[in-house]
């Protein structure tokens, strides 16, 4: 019997040859391939870009560049994705796939700490995609919020964290889960934004700046 996921993949836009190859290559060569956004979420990210038509996107946490390529695919001419990855050991893998993409001219790839690099970006951002160290989500949010335009969108990935967000708080000891719990509570209490959690994959929170 066909699964729901199989049915979905048959009825949405195709992943594309480059992304499919990237996905397979990551599962062979990288330690945590499940961190890739994947086919469904990748098509969602592209669709968000189609609908919002952002001129400037900031991505915190490039990893393989899968999500980066999906967002760039949905951008108008002249729009750019600034993407930052702290783990420079990924550089040969990630840079090679971005270089192969027909959308590479829409991507600005930076290696280093977002806290050091962000002040050098002379931009107001329309969309921010957060998919990096979960223990630092609150810091990322405070960092980028002042230069997110009113009506801009923050997308925070992994905000359901494999269901750990509903475990007994006394059982939560790791900093990654604590970071997600603190971030979710921070967003819940922030009256400067409207927010919704989409239960796709590991949870994607949409945060709209009033």
Summarize the structure.
This protein has 210 residues and is an alpha/beta fold. It has helices at 4-10, 17-29, 38-52, 66-73, 91-100, 114-117, 137-144, 175-188; strands at 56-60, 80-85, 107-111, 125-130, 148-157, 193-198, 204-209. The longest helix is centred in the first third of the chain and has 15 residues, at 38-52.
Name some characteristics of this structure:
7 strands, alpha/beta
Please describe what this structure looks like.
The chain is of the alpha/beta class. The protein is about 40% helix and about 20% strand. It contains 8 helices and 7 strands. It has a 7-stranded mixed β-sheet, with helices on both faces. It is globular and about 40 Å long. The termini are far apart.
Counting helices, strands and paired strands, the structural category is: alpha/beta
Low-confidence stretches: none
Quaternary state reads single chain
Write down how many β-strands occur, each being a DSSP E stretch of 2 or more residues.
7
How would you state the average pLDDT, rounded?
A: 95
Helix content: 25-40%
Shape: globular
Order of helices and strands: HHHEHEHEHEHEHEE
- SS summary, helix count: 8
| Main sheet strand line-up | 3-2-1-4-5-7-6
C-alpha end-to-end distance = 45 Å
Largest β sheet strand count, sense and barrel closure? 7 strands, mixed
Share of β-strand residues? 15-25%
């Amino acid at each position: 019997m066909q699964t729901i996921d199989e049915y979905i993949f048959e009825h949405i836009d195709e992943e594309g040859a480059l992304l499919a190859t990237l996905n397979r290559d990551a599962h062979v060569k990288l330690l945590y391939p499940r961190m890739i956004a994947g086919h469904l979420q990748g098509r969602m990210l592209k669709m968000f870009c189609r609908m919002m038509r952002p001129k400037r996107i900031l991505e915190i946490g490039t990893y393989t560049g899968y999500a980066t390529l999906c967002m760039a695919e949905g951008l108008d001419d002249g729009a750019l994705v600034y993407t930052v990855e702290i783990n420079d050991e990924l550089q040969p893998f990630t840079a090679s796939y971005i270089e192969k993409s027909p959308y590479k001219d829409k991507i600005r790839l930076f290696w280093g700490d977002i806290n050091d690099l962000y002040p050098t970006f002379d931009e107001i951002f329309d969309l921010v995609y957060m998919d990096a160290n979960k223990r630092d989500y609150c810091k990322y949010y405070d960092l980028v919020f002042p230069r997110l335009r009113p009506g801009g969108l923050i997308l925070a990935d992994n905000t359901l964290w494999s269901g750990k967000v509903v475990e007994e708080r006394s059982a939560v000891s790791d900093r990654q889960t604590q970071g997600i719990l603190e971030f979710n509570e921070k967003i819940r209490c922030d009256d400067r934004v409207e927010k919704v959690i989409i239960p796709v994959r590991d949870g994607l929170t949409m945060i709209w700046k009033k």
